[in-house]
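ok so i was messing around last nite and threw this chain in just to see what happens. nothing serious, just curious
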Amino acid sequence: MHWLAQTQWFSGSIPGAGLKFHIAVTLILAKSREPQMISYGYHRYPGRLFVVEGTDGSGKSTQLALLYQWLKAEGYPVFFSEWNSSPLVKDTTRRAKKRRLFTPTTFSLLHATDFADRTERDIIPPLKAGAIVLADRYIYTAFARDVARGCDRAWVREIYKFAVKPTVGFFFRAPLDVAIDRIAAARPSLKYYEAGMDMGWADDEEESFKVFQGKILDEYDHMVSEFGLTQIDATQSIRTQQRQMREIVSRHLKEKLKEKVVLTG
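result:
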């Protein structure tokens, strides 16, 4: 299917998505095919991008929040970006989830649109200015979730090829049973898409969630070597994990300082 035809099908599959949203999806997918587009791994910005990944319940958000506080206290200019937080697609996402209109492909394209908007507004400008950007989930979340839902692995990666390669991608790996126990303790109930109920894996929400998270974890394990993710044992104490993060981040910030000295020397 031609990319433009695909976006037209996508907007038509979510009633009420509107012309603005259709244009946004069309533009982002068209952009990924532009000859002049800078592809993953080829951006050169003075800033540093650190991202956290992992299954639900891995503790990644807690670790990123602690890292953010530490970097701010150290005097670094720090910006934060969170998965699925773009105002461009917020209303469409809410309506489609409420009416259970998503298919795996439409879900994938919606998140790609969200990510493209945040990349343009929240990620690239601070990196160009030499600041630090912290991202709670990045493209690897899409690679894990979308493929778990049945999307083609190569197709999903192609959509996100415009993304900036992170300085470090942290993967907080928690055994499936540990992660699920944490989620069960923190959330009274699971949402329809969160539990993967749209896929028909199981009639029970908790069982469907386990299947979904297991598939996601398999994809993350596959990506560690493919994308050079830095794996951290998420069963360690919060203090130990944070110390490991800070040591790794500090090394890259020292490299940045050396680069600055060379350029100004």
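not much to say yet. Strands lie at 48-53, 78-82, 132-136, 168-173, 230-233.
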